[in-house]
Specification:
single chain; mainly alpha; Serine Threonine Protein Phosphatase 5, Tetratricopeptide repeat; globular
């Protein structure tokens, strides 16, 4: 291969893998904050935490996405978004934590949210919303 042509594997300066990871994986975040009572698998928290280290753009996209998920009417989505935020603040890049400090009003409002009681689980998910994401 000649030195003037880029490699076919998406190489270049940063390599194909690194360039793709600089964007937020929206499908992963959607699965992690899905509207169901199934818990988010632990590996997803780690994968989303890595997004905060990928690039500043990816970190900001993740912040915006999670804040939008807090506006969802489902208590499941709010609780999962709060848990992802908590994990990213504890294990993610410092930029994420610093930016989340500016969004405390939205976060506190979501923690106070009370949805209608679930037919099977009653008020269990509403009670988890207040203490489930604190740390």
């Amino acid at each position: 291969m000649s030195p003037s042509r880029p490699s076919r594997d998406g190489g270049g300066r940063h390599g194909g893998r690194r360039a793709r990871s600089a964007r937020m994986d929206k499908s992963l975040c959607a699965k992690a904050t899905a509207d169901s009572d199934q818990p988010t698998p632990g590996y997803m928290y780690n994968e989303i935490g890595r997004i905060t280290h990928a690039s500043v753009d990816a970190c900001r996209q993740l912040e915006e996405y999670l804040v939008k998920r807090l506006a969802h009417s489902s208590v499941h989505v709010k609780l999962k978004a709060l848990r992802v935020m908590k994990h990213c603040c504890q294990h993610g890049h410092l930029t994420f934590r610093r930016d989340m400090q500016g969004k405390t009003a939205v976060i506190k409002e979501s923690m106070q949210y009370r949805g209608p009681p679930d037919a099977l689980h009653g008020d269990q998910f509403n009670r988890q919303g207040g203490g489930g994401a604190q740390g």
